[in-house]
Write a structure and sequence with these properties.
Chain lengths: 299, 411
């Protein structure tokens, strides 16, 4: 068992034809993922690494049994692509596009919620289930096994880039991944760590979850509440990057995400204190993830 | 996150049917005095800068006579704020206030909705009391702002009669503007009824989503892009990198923040930047900047970023590190970085450089860096160990390089 994607996942890629997006097809197929169609208006009838391309999502869904969409469209086209996915009753959608305007993000998140669709992202690098050889998105690149081997550790990354790196830490510790999700590093995202912890709690194949957190996102209160309320009772290892920001002038933000309304402070030290108090295992240094995994998994 | 300085935000409000006070802008005290002759006194003087927490103006003083204005303006231009000389001020008519209101539209990142915030302020003041709590309602982005909600919320705030009707109209206009220009937020603090019965946006702040600038050519040149994030105007170098980044929004992202001091050029990609910055400091390194590059930036972007980082006076080394990448073409990065260093005539065997990269086309990247004489690691070491190696290499190149740890680092 895994969460979100498995051997039944059949993927259509919306926005497929340039070099980088074609690369995603090639890597995914090589890994064993069922990419069954691509959509690119005007390119219908072509093939990319053996995957048929259609002018519309409707045509792609008509001829293939699609249950998942990867949206790689440029920012100005994402809203329409999500609407198309909703119209075609696709229940799992991952938006990998970066730099999406915030008003567009609000619209697509609300559209997806209303339609009962699970939307991951935007700015998500992907989801991987190594046991079934399924990867949704660019995650893992052309050498997935470098970082992702099958196992029982769930991984939630709030940083696009640190997803594969943290999976490698799991591998270095001697363990593997049940499911790994890059949730997207934008302040507005469709699937939160809390949503995933609920899924991981029910997943028999996941014994423990590792969370990589960064400044600019503010889910820590809610995660701590889940631990305190026993909504998630498996071990949770947590790392929060960016402690140097506590020494910067107030309100100074270096990276891309802007402040988030509500919740606790963005201060990483406060985040970890709260989670430590709730029972999470805190990695004070990034490399401590290895030691903590070895300690916790032994028990 | 881009801010509009108040003269520009007021222009936009005016074009969208919202009354603003008459104002002028000036770059010298003399100009301020000359142009203000067309204004009715008393007036408010505001400095047009980006302040702490991304505020856009500071009301410095009020002047009731031209002579007073002259003295205040001269004083303002003789000072600086956050080590930056004041370049422009705004002088606007000060309304004779009957009633002050608060109105804001913003994004609610928790509920994924819009928020409207309203309230009545103390009668004649132009800044809200510290214990002021606005009435807040959430708005479904799919449904927008309905007349009924506007009327209900302002009634709850205490408005009635013709005033209620007029404020409701302005509120609807403002919401239309908020969504139409892709604002992160628009705040009128305050929106005032003058004693003559006119509804005026006395002070305004507009923050624009810079990711949406591609569809707002009308805002070209008006928005202080990135200023809200940094609490100051961008430096010329930061602006240059921003322009370069925006040339093609779909070809990866580059980002640069200048920092005072430091001697290690920080060129880190993907999501490990915060962790890498933490690690460098911990081992005693002194980063000279903050930067990010992610996605699949093209050669031009990588080259621009490399040269920008290395152009800073005092930079004595370069740390180029990325988490394991899934889609960044590492050979493209390698080629652009090495060529940039050659263009800058960097003495590569002597100039400390540590590279840690792993991902697509890694072997080609390794070949390029090693051939150039650059110390290269793949995933055989962790990012933390790479940061440590960088500081060690600085110590090897510059005996006595501090290893006292990050407690000595000052922003």
């Amino acid at each position: 068992m895994a969460i979100l994607v498995d051997h039944t996942t059949r993927i259509v890629i919306q926005g497929i034809t340039d070099k980088e997006r074609s690369m995603v097809i090639r890597h995914s197929i090589h890994y064993g993922t069922k990419v069954v169609a691509g959509v690119s208006p005007g390119k219908g009838g072509q093939f990319v690494y053996g995957v048929p391309i259609f002018d519309s999502l409707r045509a792609a869904c008509r001829e293939n049994q699609v249950n998942c969409s990867l949206i790689c469209e440029p920012p100005e086209s994402v809203s329409d692509a999500v609407l198309e996915a909703i119209d075609n009753n696709i229940k799992l959608v991952l938006v990998s596009t970066v730099n999406l305007p915030v008003h567009d993000t609000l619209r697509i998140l609300n559209m997806a919620k209303k339609a009962g669709i699970r939307l991951i992202g935007p700015n998500s690098l992907g989801v991987i289930n190594p046991r079934d050889g399924v990867k949704l998105g660019a995650l893992g690149g052309d050498n997935v096994e470098r970082s992702f081997v099958p196992g029982h550790v769930g991984l939630i990354s709030m940083s696009t880039g640190m997803t594969a790196e943290t999976a490698l830490m799991v591998k270095r510790a001697g363990f593997g991944i049940s499911t790994c999700i890059g949730i997207g590093s934008d302040p507005l995202i469709g699937t939160t760590p809390m949503d995933l912890l609920h899924l991981f709690q029910r997943d028999e194949d996941t014994y423990l979850v590792v969370v990589f957190s960064e400044p600019g996102v503010n889910f820590d209160d809610s995660i701590a509440d889940m631990l305190k309320n026993k909504q998630f009772v498996k071990p949770l290892i947590y790392y929060a990057a960016g402690r140097f920001l506590e020494r910067m002038p107030e309100g100074y933000i270096l990276g891309n995400p802007p402040p988030v309304l509500g919740g606790s402070s963005l201060d990483p030290s406060q985040k970890v204190a709260k989670l430590r108090g709730a029972g999470a295992y805190i990695a004070d240094n990034y490399d401590d993830i290895i030691m903590l995994l070895q300690q916790v998994m032994v028990h | 996150m881009g801010l509009l300085l108040e003269d520009r935000s007021k222009d936009i409000l005016n074009r969208n049917g919202i009354t603003i006070p008459d104002f002028i802008t000036a770059t010298t005290a003399l100009e301020a005095c000359e142009k203000s002759l067309d204004l009715a006194f008393p007036v408010s003087l505001k400095v047009l800068v980006v302040g702490k927490n991304g505020s856009v103006n500071r009301v410095v003083r009020h002047a009731s006579r031209p002579e007073e204005l002259q003295a205040i303006a001269a004083l303002i231009f003789s000072r600086d704020i956050a080590n930056r000389q004041i370049e422009r001020i705004m002088v606007q008519e000060k309304p004779d206030v009957h009633k002050s209101l608060y109105l804001k539209f913003c994004i609610d990142y928790i509920s994924h909705e819009y928020q409207i915030q309203v309230g009545l302020l103390d009668g004649a003041g132009s800044n809200r009391k510290t214990d002021f709590k606005p009435i807040i309602e959430r708005l479904n982005p799919m449904l927008g702002l309905k007349d009924g909600i506007v009327k209900r919320i302002w009634s709850k705030a205490g408005l009635d009669g013709p005033e209620l009707f007029e404020v409701c109209q302005i509120t609807i206009n403002l919401f239309s503007l908020f969504t139409g220009i892709d604002a992160n937020f628009i705040e009128l603090n305050p929106l005032v009824f003058s004693k003559q019965g006119t509804l005026i946006a006395e002070h305004s702040t507009i923050s624009i989503d810079d990711n949406a600038m591609f569809r707002h050519p009308e805002l070209e040149g008006l928005v202080e892009i990135g200023a809200e994030r940094l609490g100051r105007f961008l430096s010329n170098l930061e602006k240059h990198i921003l322009q370069l980044d925006m040339e093609d929004n779909n070809q990866g992202t580059i980002h640069l923040v200048e920092i005072d001091g430091g001697d290690i050029g920080f060129m880190c990609g993907g999501g490990g930047n915060y962790m890498l910055f933490d690690s460098l400091l911990k081992f005693g390194g002194r980063p000279a900047n903050y930067s990010e590059f992610c996605g699949n930036p093209n050669s031009k972007k990588i080259s621009g970023l490399t040269k920008a980082i290395l152009s800073k006076q005092g930079v004595r080394g370069l740390f180029l590190a990325q988490n394991i990448t899934s889609n960044t073409q590492l050979d493209t990065v390698a080629q652009a970085v090495v060529e940039s260093m050659k263009d800058l005539a960097i003495d590569l065997p002597r100039f400390p450089v540590v590279v840690r990269q792993s991902g697509a086309n890694e072997e080609k990247a390794r070949e390029i860096f090693v051939k150039a004489g650059i110390e290269y690691y793949g995933d055989e070491i962790t990012l933390v160990k790479a940061a440590r190696r960088m500081v060690e290499k600085m110590s090897e190149a510059y005996p006595g390089y501090s290893e006292e740890g990050y407690l000595n680092w000052q922003y």
